[in-house]
Amino acid sequence: AEAPVSVPAAVAELDPQPHAEAAPDDNLNGKDTPVDTTPVHANALESLHFKHHKDTPREKVVEDNYNQLVSILQQVISEPKVDNLVRPINPSTYKLANATLMIMARNQDLRGVLYTMRQIEEKFNSKFHYPYVILNDGDFKDNFIDRVTKMTTSKVYFEKIEPEEWNQPDWIDSSKQKSQMKVLKQQNIAYANKVSYHNMCRYYSINFFNHPRMREFKYYWRFEPNTDYFCDIDYDVFKFMEMNNKVYGFVISLYDAQETMPSLWPETLKFLNKNKNYLNKNAAIDFLMEDMQNPVKTEFTGGYSTCHFWSNFEIADMDFYRGEAYTEWTKHLDQTGGFYYERWGDAPVHTLGVGLFADRNDVHWFRDIGYKHHPYTNCPHSDKCHGCEPGLFTYEHLKDQNCLTNWWNYEMDDTSRQLY
Ligand code: GDP
Ligand code: MN
Predict the structure, then answer these.
(1) Distance from chain centroid for Cα 117
(2) pLDDT band at 29 (very low <50, low <70, confident <90, very high)
(3) Atom of ligand 1 nearest to the CA of 224
(4) 112 Cα nearest atom in ligand 1
(5) What is the pLDDT of residues 305-354, one digit of tens each?
(6) Could you point out which of 137, 272, 365, 416 has its C-alpha 20 to 30 Å from the C-alpha of 408?
(7) Would you say the CB of residue 136 lies under 6 angstroms from ligand 1?
(8) What is the mean predicted confidence (pLDDT) over 3-10?
């Protein structure tokens, strides 16, 4: 799916964004610039990125984005209008895609795991029987295994994560870690000094797809305890990904706390400078670098809006993560210690990887999957959905957190906007 090109070639080849005024071609005009001396940042990415109307008041940007989101969510939809949806006509002979439903959990998460599994079974998996993988850094109790096994007729793999894969590397400087976490704590960053949370984010960012059990699969659907699924899904979402060449699927897109990632974007640019060939010529630069709705965030991070695909739901192709670009980039990130000196979430890491190294046309908004992880909801207006209010996104005071409309406006083409 990747079509890596050198940065100058990308600049030369990239069509101007249909929604934006043509970007003035500052310092980089492609062909003549020698590859090795072109700094990726400031020049290359920003010249790929359209220029904003800084004079639009932020309040209006927030209001417009929110109204647009609600009006999109209120349109009546059903399934994606492709002619290759696959349905399980005969479940007993149905041939599955190479895919699994996966979750990370501890014994204490049992109730929440069952709560969500019940819904996934009812809405989707009782029609398909995809296997589950449940990952834990500790050992599951018999009761956990027993209760989860009884929730589905599908195979469930209970898997342990090796300590070497899970724990923080021993070269992490613990006094630096402590003092940095104190700062984050003072900024009220959730889980700042919970090492297990840092381990979890790092594992989801760089390791889960190489767990021996996960290695048996190509696609995964990640779910989380205590999340809700509102709509019947009557076609095979994994085969949808496969047959339509999708690399990554999401439902909700949000900004993050910028304080968790001071060096994530700068380190990423450092990496890109040395590895320009990994940048996809259809990278989602405008989505990543938007700076109108929450300009404070984009400024703080040095150019990344913090807008991310919310990773507590995702359906994606692990071969993308296993590929050279994502693997080399996350190796670079990991050795900076940023998963412990800062509090990088796996959502911005997945998003930057997908946004930079995948083709944006291979990213899919699962508009038809009604979903809630407190406090945000994706609720389609569809006969297939029950128990949520179409158009509802979140509480009033959080409505500036929506950035799905950036994906819609900057990265989707008309075909994908009209897919439902
Ligand atoms: P939040 O959504 O960012 O508040 O994070 P959650 O508490 O929902 O955690 C994200 C996912 O990781 C959930 O599936 C949790 O069950 C799981 N998780 C978090 N911490 C741990 C941990 O220390 N061990 C294990 N095994 N799973 C964890
Ligand atoms: Mn969660």
Answers:
(1) 21
(2) very low
(3) 14
(4) 16
(5) 999 999 999 999 999 999 999 999 999 999 999 999 999 999 999 999 99
(6) 272
(7) yes
(8) 38
Domains and CATH numbers, the chain: 60-256+286-420 (3.90.550.10)
Look up residue 151 and give its two tokens.
Answer: 């929730």
List residues bridging with 314 in a β-sheet. 222
Exactly one of 2, 314, 342, 411 is catalytic; name it: 314
- The whole-number pLDDT of residue 43 equals 58
pLDDT in tens, 124-149: 999 999 999 999 999 999 999 999 99
> Which residue type, as a one-letter code, is found at position 374?
H
Return the residue matching tokens 């192709």: 317
The minimum-distance atom of ligand 1 relative to the CA of 196 is 23
Q: Is 299 a catalytic residue?
A: no
Residue whose CA is at the smallest distance from ligand 1 atom 12: 104
Which residue among 158, 199, 200 has the greatest number of ligand 1 atoms within 8 angstroms of its CB, and so is best to mutate? 200
Query: Does 260 contact ligand 1 (Cβ within 6 A)?
Result: no
How would you class 296 by CB atoms within 10 Å of its CB: exposed for 0-12, middle for 13-18, buried for 19 or more?
Answer: exposed
